[in-house]
Amino acid sequence: MRRVYLDHNATTPVHPEVLEAMMPFFQDQFGNASSIHWAGREVKKYLDDAREKVAALLNATPEEVIFTGCGTESDNMAIKGVAYALQDKGRHIITTEVEHHAVFHTCQFLEKAGFEVTYLPVDSDGLIDLEKLRLSIKNQTILITIMFANNETGTVFPVQEIGEMARGKGVIFHTDAIQAVGKLPIDLKQLPVDILSLSGHKLYAPKGIGAQYIRAGTKLTSLIHGGGQERNRRAGTENIPYIIGLGKASEIAQRDFQGRREHLLALRERLHRGIINRIPHVKLNGHPTKRLPNTLNLSFLYIEGESLLLNLDLEGIAVSSGSACTSGSLEPSHVLLAMGIPHEIAQSAIRLSLGWSNTQEDVDYVVEVLPRIVQRLRDISPLYQKRVSRSK
Question: Alpha carbon 268 to chain centroid distance?
């Protein structure tokens, strides 16, 4: 049976060049980068080199890049770190209703600790109203944390405008860019972003490695205490093999950026056209143009997305019904509900997210298989049968 993986927003396979770069650091170059002898000094060179590669992808300085254990840690480090560092100035945080749970639940945690959080609504395309953001900022506001691009719909937020507004009010701006890094151009010399989170396994590096950009001069309380690693920002012996992997993945992402972007856009449009030309009653969720080049979130009316996902899996096609972190939940996506999408339409959604290794043949196979699955599920759907009987 053919296998097609269309869930790259959940995780990506490790790039062959990344794996090759990592391998020596499991055995031959095993030193602790904090050691001053030859084994440590040799590894420290490669640690510094990896930091430079991540910084280059973001057009930042290496001193502004800190390695973490994952994207969720990076988000926690940013939000809690700013909250604790600046709580004497104020205890108000602004975010949105469509954030990843790494941000959403961290903000809820801080609410229990006495912080006030404003959750901005979004429109039907998944975008915030910048005027509502402006009106939400007050003297006690210390942090705005808004994602760069949504992990479920791919909708890209106006990061430049948000950052300018935050800077004008003297408020720290953090963006969860875990889905955006490597897919969108990011220039932190130009973008008014104070803290940015990224994750290795969304970027063809392994799971278990992330990074944090922290603009020079930004106050942040450390979450993990111990040694003085990562410029006293994040204690703990550095995970050298995985850091090397993230550095290599960043180098590849910068090297292949334009070709990958064009490839993903072409495949996404081929997939979208193929589906809507062959299947009626399909709704696009998210902004039609301000969207990640690889992401397609579609509702197939009158059926459940979970049933569609399981039937596609039987045909060797891997997709998602929402965020990978909530895949065990039977509830509709909080992102789609926040966009005002009715419960039954939100529950009929699946996310198809492409990667650099996908081909036209992969897309054509999905377009071939999907219509008969959808029709079979609609044939046993009471909602669809009710619609058919009304139309007679």
Answer: 18
Q: Which of 184, 325, 337, 383 is catalytic?
A: 325
Write down the domain spans for the chain.
4-12+257-391, 16-255
List phi, psi (to 5°) of 151: -70, -20
Please give the order of strands across the beta sheet that includes 282-284.
Answer: 282-284, 295-300, 349-353
Nearest to 340 by CA among 117, 136, 96, 125: 125
Rounded to whole angstroms, the Cα distance separating 276 from 129 reads 30
Does the annotation mark 325 as catalytic?
yes
Q: For residues 207 and 235, give the distance between their C-alpha atoms in angstroms, rounded to a whole number.
A: 19
pTM check: above 0.85: yes
CATH assignment of 4-12+257-391?
3.90.1150.10
Rg, Å, the chain Cα set:
22
**Smallest Cα–Cα separation from 159: which of 123, 133, 125?**
133
Q: Does the CA dihedral 108-94-291-76 come out positive or negative?
A: negative
Please, are residues 204 and 15 in contact by the beta-carbon 8 Å criterion? yes
Read off the pLDDT of residues 68-97 as tens digits, 9 standing for 90 and up: 999 999 999 999 999 999 999 999 999 999
Class for the domain spanning 16-255: alpha beta
Could you give the CA distance from residue 28 to residue 319 in angstroms, rounded to a whole number? 39
Three-state DSSP state, 227: coil
